[in-house]
């Protein structure tokens, strides 16, 4: 194992130990340059390098040296999905000697806290868990500061670290303004001249007058030997239709001999909707589609299948571009424009960067970009011509600036001095220019910042989020302000301050007994912008909405589908047939709505005249799981008993021809299940009946049901099955049970 001679001996030992833990024999050019530039020396550092050039080893070496010097490190990644992988990688060399943690106690007790950017920002603001006592933070995938989803949290995290004097090491793929970013962070800058480890061959495809879908199919057909393929699409409908068209060619037929239809049916616990039938047929031909509206367990399954080579072509929306590491050889950018506007160069680079990533054995990757303007596309995006955009501040936007001030005031940074000092650590301050468009000269930066801070404070005061103190220079949050910040810090739901204010006023001013579950769902879908893609519903659904005074638009339809069909635990195919809404996306939409409703508890609790309804927690659970009121304790306490299996169990108990099921007590499924257990009077036989007769319930689930019946208990509130279903919930799904022979069980 050899290292450059100009690396100090102590640093060389640290680096060698990291290399040995990961099985590396030598350093790459980028790594040698970074260590020569002194990234292990005290101070802030920004390392910019192409994919595959070893930035992670540099970050781990910095982490290890900080630990050896008695320091504590926050290793920050963009998403929760990446936390476990990074924690495990660090434990390869430090797990025996150091506490490397990612749980809630990490900031307080770990030597290395592996967490997300947003958790760090919140911990600094709230001064919880010892985050302010960290010595170094590592910012992984710093280039995600470009995007509007994670970018604001990254910018605020850096500001928080700088305010507290915590050293920063940021590593990034190529960005457009590295010098400016380094100046902002007061960081030494290393920009590696080393090219991408695996070349990507970029090709423009002139669509001309052709249908885009046909052009996608034709591109893949011509380059069939360059798979696996990842096709990026702008919109969900295009993602699905293009996947279906590629599958219809039969180009990838035979990629797998698995029964995808059966596996998919098991994933969704019921009959397949039209959309999922299309997905299953496509997968039989080696093609799948992927977007955020599919159930999470389905998208995770598709990603695993693609990784394992069971799927040869994946059509996806661009949400998969971040953190997706899989054996892609060719990327097809089907939509280089969003409507009339070209996508960002940084986005294009992120997308094609999914091709030929290190570790998959490719000597070259390929990127095909479809366009009506080939010359413009090549000049704007291709490597020899492209210029990456500057990373811009995310608080130029009034809404985000208001949120920042409110978050600061709510967490105790409530004086003009503290607020101004924090904002001056943001990229915003560095990019606040004194000369504007056409040479117009502005006030000084301090004057402009003070004016904006005053205007923002006035807006927050006028709208009831904060108040200004009378006896000293400072602010305090109102009940509404506290509720808004607690909501924001406890959900990933995107919400405007105006939407939160509207929900607060609704829950504050509405008589408690007049707040219903359907009303809560309707208010949540509208204010927080959750909806199914539905313009119309069935006559049955629209009649129910009219009866409740709810508009039959996409928000009202979503609320009605969730409340009267999904929460009635109808099979998704039945939901689709009865509501005329594509039910493939109900579960993912319901999960987001459930998370948002759960977070509204902080708004409700903050409102002086409001209180959470008795059914609030049950509503959160039912919206997420899609079950009846009486089924909640079973699906929450019996491992493996989801909405499909509990439905099959309920229907079996109410229609079985076994003598033990005759004369069961009226009432809830729990009461009947207990009665059934007592009638059989043999625990082993009870378990055998369940696993032998009820679809979806195998040995493990049957054992879990038995254990809960024997040792569990159900709250009194679930002993009544009364519910505001208000529609006929008769289920038309496939049979709940297999044929029963009474002789098999001797009863």
TrEMBL record:
Residues 728-740 have a biased composition (Polar residues). One of its GO terms (molecular function) is hydrolase activity. The keyword Metal-binding does not apply. Residues 215-409 form the Helicase C-terminal domain. SUPFAM superfamilies: P-loop containing nucleoside triphosphate hydrolases, Sec63 N-terminal domain-like. It holds the Pfam family DEAD. Residues 724-747 are annotated as: Disordered. Residues 36-193 form the Helicase ATP-binding domain. InterPro entries: DEAD/DEAH_box_helicase_dom, Hel308_SKI2-like, Helicase_ATP-bd, Helicase_C-like, P-loop_NTPase. The keyword Nucleotide-binding applies. Keywords: ATP-binding, Helicase, Hydrolase, Nucleotide-binding. This is DEAD/DEAH box helicase.
